[in-house]
Write a structure and sequence with these properties.
mainly alpha
Length: 79
Amino acid sequence: MKKTLITAALALAAGGAFAFHCPVDMKEIDAKLATHPKLSEADAAKVKQLRADGEAAHKAGKHEESVKMLGEAKKILGM
């Protein structure tokens, strides 16, 4: 029983950590985009779409999904 409660507490804490990570990632992506990185039009459009989708997922409480999308955008940006 004790292990179950600890596991549940850790799972909730991890969800909270993702929630706080999303805004940081969005700010980092925005800062990088402000430097006008050399990207193809397709990559630039994909980064902007992933950034927007990541923010929407964050606002919907889907933080793990948001972190994945924002991470993909950061990868394209070479971050």
